[in-house]
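Job type: complex structure
Entries:
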Amino acid sequence: MAKRVLIVDDEPRYLRLLEANLRTEGYEVTTAQDGVQALEVFSAQPIDLVLLDVMMPRLDGFGVCQRLREFSNVPIVILTARGEEQDRVRGLDLGADDYLVKPFSATELLARVRAVLRRAQPPPETGQARFFTHDNLKIDFARAEVWVGEEPVSLSATEYRLLLQFAHNIGKILTSEDLLTSVWGAEYKNDKEILWVSIARLRQKLEEDAHNPRHIVTRSGLGYLMPPIEA
Amino acid sequence: MDSATLLALQDIFRQIRVMQDWKAALDLLFITLRGEFVYDNVAVYLVAPKTDGLEVAYARAVGRGKTAEADAAWGESFANEVFAREKMMVEEPVSNGREADRLLQEYLLGFPLHIGSKLEGVIVFVRFGGPQYTESHIKLASLQAYWTTALIERKALQEARNELDSVQRQMRLQDDFVSTISHELRTPLGFIKGYSTSLLRQDTSWDEGTQREFLTIIDEEADRLTKLIEDMLESARLQSKTLQFKFSLVRLDALVRDVAQRVTTLHPQLKVSFDIGSLQPIRGDGIRLSQVFENLFSNALKYAPGSELTIGMHMTGQVLRVTFADRGEGIHEDFLPFLFERFYRVPGDRTETGTGLGLYICKQIILAHHGKIWVESVLGRGTTFIIELPPDPAA
């Protein structure tokens, strides 16, 4: 079934540009011209991906991103007109999966959309055990669900894929490049910011003390690992 | 000094500390202490920033003899001497025994004023006809000199802080300006980049209508970029006042009819009607004023499409009043105060291309003519721009 993309931008010319290109790739497209409308449209029909402009009247892109994350793990790509680091990091911090800096080319846009949708696919079954536990952390591979203690944890598709990398490589140090390539795709391998923010978000959700993590540990200058649990 | 005096002094110093105006604070200090230390005039000389010479910054005639505070010439040469020697000085006249001249005899007492280690000025007291300054007088005077220094120092600090505040405010404006500019430039660039790379995609083909549509957008956005850069240069020149105005006698009615004709040739759908009274030529820059009118026409075309535009010109008293009234949708009153600000665009109004600079430029041009421009609007009824120009900006 064709994936449905919600485009949110207050500039009609951006809506047209995004829509025309996405349709050539077989995506269904729905549009909204401001943040409030975006939330209304989102709750009215199933959406597989949101392309979200930052500067908009009524409710800006950051606001929409924050609201969406309260109840949905839909992949979100922030479209920012300002290439400044703080904007990109803020979007990722609020739970966006990726960002695209205006001006962008049509091929860049389509590549990002493909990459984000690919990450959103449930990862292939590895034929291992159904459950994985690491101290108080538990993963149900079959249902792609995660618990900390008795509490279910809601992870975005990207966060879940990132966690799986660690679970499948217990005790092994994974470099930033490894993680970026395997979770996001080869074209992201130098995009460390996106990894830092995602690791930070994952720790916030999984760790009792995000500053003193036990599940995902940093090895300075080398990378990250999930340490083996001592018996 | 008894405890009542001490309490009174404490009270005075407390008041002085919170007073904003250093001269008023000095007045209070001197008047209060005059009971303890009698003199006729006091003057504070400070180093003038430009000439490095001493200039009177404060003078009061509080006793007999000379009156006006401006008449501080009596202390000037003495002040320069205290300043040169950088120490406390007393100068008393040699008595010639004639009582008639007594009031002309100046008993002078001066202190250098140091702020930090820097000599910033001098304070001078004078008694006309004596008596001599005793040691306790000199002590009290030195206390006053000390407080004068403190007040002057505070004033200097206040001035420095105000200057810093203003510099910071300007820097913030500059920052906002730069970030607004880069955003404004990125918008048309984003479309040019996006639509041209769409056409260049090798993995798809666009039908002819779509190709034309995309190329038209690229063309329009390139024009918008050009206009944006021109407007930015123009507004920068207007803001820094480096744009030269050439004033001559102009007939505004002829000017506006010329512009109207040019605009209606390009946009035959625009209906313009005139309501022009009997006018005198005014002194103005015809090219710049035409630019203002062009802007108002183009706004009417963009934001009140299909509406008739009524242009009025009448003398109201000494000023010439020009009105551009459309019957479009109007502008919400919340947005009206910002219309003439740089880069302001009514939120949500993105269907039309614009730079957000047009009305800012209009306002600067009208201000350069010592005139006024403002806007009145009623939602659903229309918008009127009003300009008032004096017959001669130089008069």
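Summary: Chain A has a mean pLDDT of 88. Residues 131-225 of chain A form a domain with the Arc Repressor Mutant, subunit A fold (CATH 1.10.10.10).
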